[in-house]
Write a structure and sequence with these properties.
This protein is 51% helix and 18% strand. The chain has helices spanning 4-7, 10-75, 84-93, 118-127, 180-197, 242-315, 321-353, 365-382, 402-418, 466-470, 477-487, and strands at 98-104, 110-112, 146-149, 158-165, 171-178, 198-204, 209-211, 222-225, 233-239, 361-363, 386-391, 398-400, 425-433, 436-443, 491-497, 501-509. The chain contains eleven helices and 16 strands. Bound molecules: adenosine-5'-diphosphate (ADP).
Length: 525
């Protein structure tokens, strides 16, 4: 015997399914974490490279200012004050963004103030001279570059200043007052490249725009203060394609989640299919076992009756002719029942294998039913049933397999006899209706719950009520009847209410005998 069934143990299957479910969930969770982690990493790298670009721009601007400082400081010779006016003019003319050059003592006293327009002079006074003490100029080292940057209230006054020592050892402070507009122009030159790919702005600490329009803050936003030169200003930026970046990222995440959910769903669906398939298989095995037990039981009863009555008859103990013929009758009835049961089984087996020979011939269904009923009438009436018939013998003949239809009718009739309970009334009707012939068998017995109306036609299925379970049966009668109906291009319908009785209708289409589909010769008409 195969070892497979032991593997198909319920606990093993449940455990295997549990393991698959847990590992699928774990795997899905881990891959979700991994993909999200990767997406974050990609995003972080992108943000990082953006930030590096901005840091580089700031450094380049700072470096340019510092380089300019060195050039400026070299243009002034502090040893010869008579030279200062010419030097100051030269500085202003050079392309170094200087508005004015001021010469002072480290304590703030003027040494040489060139003539300047009122606005420039005013700005210098407010931005530098008035606050000279704060600058602690005395402590400055010679030749060291210094920058002064003021807030909005002082028009962002910006100056670079240096202490120079003359040969005589005098400390002279030179302050280069820078032009706001030209400084912005310089910054603009250096940000052009960056602005192709980024929205860029420069703001002060109160978020007042100095350059460009302030950019909105989002996850790709980056800002940095100029470290030493324009230290009151902050450069802000976001990539121009940030909406696409955000959308791409959102789409990617959504796609990952959809894929993970989909693969989980498919795994669980396959598991459900496997589980249900297995359950169905087990149910079928169980049904088959019940079937074998039922069939054996059904065969045992008539066999033991036949055995018992023939033994009595053989022993010669029954002298009375009347009783003897009654016993013979019983033996004949029981052997009839056995042969019908065996015919049913053989038919079922051949239908199952799909090898049943069709024996279609012109058949009058009403007459066929009438003949069958004659055979059972005695048994029906003996069991106390009232039989009402309405057989339309004038209905047209149709191409049909009479043996098969006889078997189908027997199954319906036998069920009515078995499941009638106390209401022993059976009605058999054959009628023509719209191109069909209907054969209806009704009883007033147990009836069938609605939930079972479809199942009763499945092979091996038997009703769940205890009344049905106590009655002899093997669950193949209706399955055979249904197959016979379908073989004729028809169907079987049930109409039943629990406790009210049932009507089974076998409906087959009328097919003209001229089609001559006849495959067998024996007439059963
Ligand atoms: P069996 O009668 O051997 O159980 P069938 O295939 O003939 O198998 O019928 C299947 C089930 O349908 C029966 O077990 C019973 O529950 C239900 N059934 C069939 N005919 C009737 C009927 N006339 N009245 C009540 N229940 C019926």
């Amino acid at each position: 015997m195969s070892r497979l069934p032991s593997l198909y143990n319920k606990t093993v299957v449940t455990t295997a399914i549990g393991v698959i479910v847990i590992s699928t969930i774990t795997l899905s969770y881990l891959s979700y974490r991994y993909t999200i982690g990767r997406a974050n990493l990609v995003e972080a790298t992108l943000v990082q490279s953006n930030n590096t670009l901005i840091d580089q721009s700031i450094s380049r601007i700072e470096q340019k200012i510092i380089d300019n400082d060195a050039v400026l400081y070299n243009m002034i010779d502090v040893n010869d004050p008579s030279d200062w006016p010419a030097a100051a003019d030269a500085v202003k003319k050079a392309d170094l963004n200087v508005d004015q050059v001021w010469f002072l003592q480290p304590n703030g006293r003027p040494l040489y103030f060139p003539r300047a327009d009122a606005r420039t002079a005013h700005a210098f006074r407010r931005g530098f001279l008035d606050k000279v003490r704060e600058l602690n100029l005395e402590a400055l080292h010679a030749d060291e570059a210094n920058h002064l940057h003021r807030e909005k209230g002082d028009d962002y006054f910006f100056a670079t200043y240096v202490i120079k020592e003359s040969r005589k050892g005098e400390r002279i402070l030179i302050c280069f007052q820078m032009s706001f507009d030209r400084t912005i122009a310089l910054i603009n030159r250096y940000l052009k490249e960056l602005e192709r790919t980024h929205y860029v702005s420069i703001v002060d600490f109160e978020n007042n725009a100095v350059y460009g329009r302030p950019v909105e803050s989002n996850r790709y936003f980056y800002e940095r203060r100029f470290p030493t030169t324009f230290y009151k200003w902050i450069l802000q930026s976001i990539p121009r394609n940030y909406t696409e970046l955000e959308r791409d990222e959102k789409n990617q995440r959504r796609m990952f989640v959809v894929l993970i959910v989909l693969s989980m769903f498919l795994t669980f669906l396959s598991l459900a299919v496997i589980y249900l398939g297995g359950r169905r298989e087990r149910q079928l095995v169980q049904l088959k076992e019940d079937f074998i037990a039922n069939v054996s039981h059904e065969l045992k009863t008539p066999l033991s009756l036949i055995g018992m009555f023939s033994e009595i008859l053989i022993s010669g103990r029954v002298k009375d002719d009347c009783t003897r013929s009654e016993y013979f009758g019983i033996i004949q009835n029981e052997s009839d029942r056995m042969s019908r049961l065996i015919n049913n089984l053989l038919d079922f087996a051949s239908l199952e294998r799909g090898v049943r020979r069709r024996n279609f011939q012109a058949t009058n269904l009403a007459r066929l039913v009438k003949r069958e009923l004659e055979a059972y009438r005695y048994q029906i009436e003996k069991e106390g049933f009232t039989l009402v018939t309405d057989l339309a013998e004038s209905a047209p003949e149709t191409l049909a397999d009479p043996t098969a239809l006889g078997l189908a009718f027997y199954n319906l009739l036998d069920n009515s006899l078995k499941y009638s309970g106390e209401h022993k009334e059976i009605q058999v009707r054959v009628a023509q209706s719209n191109g069909f012939i209907d054969l209806a068998v009704s009883d007033r017995g147990l009836g069938i719950p609605h939930a079972e109306h479809a199942q009763i036609f499945e092979k091996f299925y038997r009703g769940s009520s205890s009344a049905v379970q106590k009655t002899r049966g093997n669950g193949i009668g209706l399955a055979i009847t249904k197959q016979i109906a379908e073989m004729h291009g028809g169907e079987v319908r049930v109409d039943s209410e629990p406790g009210q009785g049932s009507t089974f209708t076998l409906r087959i289409p009328i097919r003209q005998t001229s089609l001559e589909e006849t495959s067998g010769a024996d007439s059963d008409r």
